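The step that takes the researchers longest sounds almost clerical: writing a folded protein down as plain text. The outcome of that step, for a single protein, is printed below.
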Amino acid sequence: MNKFMAVFFSLMLVFSSVQQGYGEAGAVKYYAVQIGSYEKKDIMESALKRLQGMGYRPYWKSEGGRYKMFLGNYSSKGQADGVLSGLGSKGIDGFVRERVKYVSANAKPAGAAKAQEPSADAGAGKDSKAVLQAADTAIADEPAFENNSQADAADTGLMSKNFKRQKDVTIQGVYGSDVFFFDVDKDWDIRGAYLNLVFSQSQLEPGEGQQGNDSTLTVYINKFPVYSMDLSGRDQYKEQVRVNIPADKVSPGFNEISVRTYKRIMELPCKDDLNPANWIAFHKESYVHVDFMDKKDSLDISGYPYPYLKSSDDIKPQGIIVIPDDFKRSELEAAGILSAGFGKGSRFENLNVRVYRHSQSPPVEHSNVIFIGGSANSPGEVMSLLSEQEKGSLKNSAVIKKVKSPYSGSHSMLAIISDDEASLVNAAKALTDEKLVVQMNSNVQLMGESAGAGGNEQDEYEYYRLENLGYSDVLLEGLFRQQATFGIKVPKNRKVKEGAKLDIRFRYSKVLDFEKSLMTVYLNDTPIGSKKLSGENADNDSFEVEIPKELRDVNYYEMKIAFDLNMDDVYCEIRPQTASWAFVSAQSKAYLPYEYRDYPLLEDYEAPFVKDMKFNDLVIVLPEDPTSEELGTACSIAAFLGHSVKNVDGISITTPGGFSKEDENSNLIVIGTPGRNGLVKDLNGRLNMRFDEDFKKFVSNEHVTVLEKYSENIAAIQIVDSPYRSGGKMLVLTGSSQREVVNAGRYLFDFNLVERLRGNLAIIDGKGNMQYEYVGEKAKKIMEGQQAQPAEDLGGSRPDGQGMSSQVRNFVIFTAAVLIITVMGSAFIMKRSRR
């Protein structure tokens, strides 16, 4: 008995000491603005990026199995209330939370919780700051105490954008280099930039005092050196180094970041270059950060789409599009065309377009506004902006006029007004054509019915030149392995055919050892061909290589061109790096003959609505009385599809009341619940998953089973054959409620969510979980021909696992231990009592 009780009290002493560690913690009270609580991490991250795009610095924390997003750590409630008020003026809801953190008095500040940038002390002592920073390393980018409100910070106009690497890159040998690119908008006024380089390297290095202990890394921006560092003694996995980039070295358009290394682990370079243990890796977590302010706006239309479209971490229009309450089809169509133009001009960015009817629009004093309308349905404050002469031209022409906003002196309005529907649509198309916009060097432009239809440029649809993709010539300098990487996107409705090939144009130094020097081309990390370099061709060489069959059925190629540049006796002698070089011409191209996919699925979206870089006779059908959310969904879809077009012909938006016989010959995207969009009711019998007789919920069928309660709160994205014409296709976005439809709509315009789509039926619930089905024989055959992938890679129906926090886990362990000991003690006492 005495022995058992001793063990019992010892265990209790251990657990009480664990809890005592918590009991001795210092308490820090502060205030934060909570602006979201999410079940799914990817949806939270998307919202977080949107706020970053508005100039805020939000952070997130996992609490109770949900991802919660906050702004600021404020020492007073008044500061937090001020931030909340600023958010409310911009249409962002939230509330102030009082938060307390408990930290051991001996805790040291945790580097993982450091602020992103220094901020002023807000009344809390430095010790309190340290305690707060140490409290929870699970917080992502949580700032220190703030003195100035985030709303004020946003109003300064300073914005930022991160350009991330796509893949890890490994370099082996003594000399190495890697090149990647980032694209800077012409309307940015660069205020600062840095490269956050994440790398790992071999843990081996020469012993102290030995030769060769001089490994270095140098960073170049547009071939200008900006930073060098000693690599010795840095053996941490994924070590981070921040390299400042001079703002005056960053140019509009594509910029080149080059990282060159000289790496030694032994005394003799001849051994180092052949030793596989001599390596350095640059990780995909590396990124270039750019701080910028938008250039000062002018009233010339030639600057369009600025300031109605601005770039930041999650680019979205900083302006809004407003149409009349009693809009015409041409006004709705013009809004869709402008949105498609936004996408056309920002091909690699998420766009969340805001479109409102006039009476539904939020306070517009904080926004740049595009107003589209006619003389009869436009409000008086808009019509008063036009001169009498301009009003007189509205019958046969459209007036495009840029003025100071009547709602705010610090913002602008672009009014597009016409009583002629064809002229109005044509004016919207003209604003998507850069060659026409640059000629609009005043604040007023009249557009007729036939002038400027959005461009008729012809393109070599099978050829992809690096120059046309935005890349410039690339110079690689240094010995041994040097490489550059380029991306080529193939439209999703195409399947590359036999005969596809790469044509690389290049030249190189004549002082190389041509017996040991060669060039190798990789596609998606697969080597597809090499060529030995020669002195005869050094000034003008080329290499054609066919794309193998197993790499043809993809929609994105990462083309890596690698040179192995060697010189005579270089292994045991040190030679200048600049003596060995290779140059890749931007005239290099990919020839990608193709055939169309005859049965497009959701994984092929944007097909079939985009074909040959043009809209493929697309009509989007909205509910008869669309809300601002439904208008925004339709126009954001138009913007996403606009990423892949050369001009904006071939797209229209209407409602069931305006749906015509001519529209039946088009490919359709139908949006809304059956109760709000009558066309969904008409099409119900053709859907892969149908509604019940009351159109309140989905019902199970032989292809898919849904529980009755679950079916009342889901949305579905379905691709089916059009009932109106042979070969036509329809995408139907519908659901049991308007909220579910709008939430599921993000899967059609957010890059991260679009990549998760599969099959011809995708079911999305209110928590963001998605499951998909291949319905019908054709779809199942395509599925069987595809390589199987894990469900988590496909973004399947399994929800993300939520791990419990360390505090909860400790509490559970403690409670379980106490219960076990209590039960054991009770059993022992009962046994003794029986005796």
